[in-house]
Amino acid sequence: VSLTYRVKSAHKVKLTDKQLLQWMVPILLVMLIYLSTWTLSDTPTAEVIKDGNGLKFKQCVYNWWDHSLAIGEVLFLAWGIRVCYNVRNAESLYNEARLISYAIYNIALVNTTMVAIHLFIFPHAGPDIKYLLGFIRTQLSTSVTIALVFGPKVLRVLRGQGDQWDNRARSRGVTASFSLNGIGLVPEEAPDLYQENEELKEEIQKLAAQIEFMKIVHMEVNNRHVKPKSGGYFSNLNAPAMVQSPLARPGCLLTKPPDEL
User: Fold this and answer.
1) How far is residue 132's CA from residue 122's CA, in Å, rounded to a whole number?
2) Where are the beta strands (DSSP E) in 41-120?
């Protein structure tokens, strides 16, 4: 969606599923290499920790591998928030772009809040509290994301409106990738074909009149053997003709007498 609305040329940007997967594979590949290197070079070990009540439990040791991964995720999430802000006014079918933005904002807010709770409110929490915080964090981020992305579509299907947008878009040659980023967005009401035909006829008549005017101007300006007709564009024989040349700059007038034209 961001690439589509940032394009500065007149042509459409068509993003296929294959192109999107080509962008996603490097992201997953980086994570795979990082986790594999971490596992082979520094296998995680467990340490014994006491909670506030003196109960002992084991937990994996946190080191610079964990901190580096957390910093990378924060930066990646910040980039996602920036992209969502850039497409905040973009239109898309099913309002999907805005719902995805809400999901990313929600993930950032939930994770920031849960980390703050874990560090400042329950710094020495036991395993039960840690699992509870992890459960709440997962439900408020992942489950809410799934509900925001797929909920409106499921609701349309249950209401019997699942194919309403697709059929209209398909009739106008709009592909699925265009539907995602709002290209070819079709209004709810069916277009008035009679009115559209009348508007097209009017535009064609205007273009035909302009072409005829240009033909007459070129013929009389560039051919001195053709005399101006009475009632034509250059029929003022008593005074120099103030002829506006279509090819001249705005405000540039031809002031030669008709005979010289």
Assistant:
1) 12
2) 46-50, 56-60
Instruction: Answer for the pair 1, 92: CB distance below 8 angstroms, yes or no.
Output: yes
Q: Is the dihedral of CA 176, 182, 184, 185 positive or negative?
A: positive
Closest CA to 108 of 67, 76, 131, 68: 76
Element (H, E) at 88: none
Nearest by Cα to 177 from 48, 19, 67: 19
Q: How far apart are CA 136 and CA 133, in angstroms?
A: 5
Query: Could you tell me if 108 and 81 are in contact, meaning their C-beta atoms sit under 8 angstroms apart?
Result: yes
Q: How far is it, in rounded angstroms, from Cα 62 to Cα 34?
A: 16
Separation of alpha carbons 225 and 248, rounded Å: 22
DSSP secondary structure code for residue 93 in this structure:
G
- The dihedrals phi and psi of 45, each to the nearest 5 degrees, come to -120, 160
- The kind and range of the H/E element at 184 are none
pLDDT digit of tens for each residue in the chain (261 aa)?
777 776 666 556 667 788 888 888 998 999 999 999 999 998 888 888 887 778 888 888 888 998 898 899 899 999 989 988 888 877 777 778 888 889 999 999 999 999 889 888 887 788 888 889 999 999 999 999 999 989 888 888 888 776 665 554 445 444 444 444 444 444 444 556 777 788 888 889 999 999 988 887 777 776 666 666 666 555 554 444 444 444 444 444 444 444 444
Backbone angles phi, psi at 233, to 5 degrees: -70, -25
